[in-house]
Design brief:
Elements lengths: L9 H11 L5 E5 L8 E3 L4 E3 L3 E5 L2 E8 L8 H18 L5 E6 L4 E5 L2 H20 L9 H5 L13
Helix pairs in contact: 2-3
Length: about 160
Amino acid sequence: MLIIITKIKKKNIRILKDKYNIQEGIITYSDLNKPARPFFSNRYSISGKPDYIVKKNNKFIPVEIKTGSHIKPQTNHIIQLACYCHLVEEHYKTFVPYGILVYENGYKFKIPFDPKLRYEFEQNLKKIRKAINTGKIVRNHNNKNKCKNCSMKNYCKNKLI
């Protein structure tokens, strides 16, 4: 098992916590100040890197920072956070009760990693794999920037760029 702990100087921790509105706890992993190793799930064959992980009350809490000024959590961001919750859970072999979404406008949301979200995460993963296997990728927006940064752009036949 690979243990990922980024060593961050105390001064840098305070700066990170202030800049990203990080909740109290010990930062055990960060992909913010320098690239970190991704987590990998044997169960789902997925990998990913949350922006950081805070350990609080013996629980590992993944946190994802998003650009944009949203006043409510976006569905795609919730599913991404669910992926990180699963990855952290599998890596540390412990229950992850929730994850946190932080938007650049200061809004912060505690998203429970409950049975409903676990099911949504698994269903989205199945849909993505089915779309890739069948080649039936359908664009659901008209935003060129989304296409530019999309992980499905190599498979999509109707991308905007």
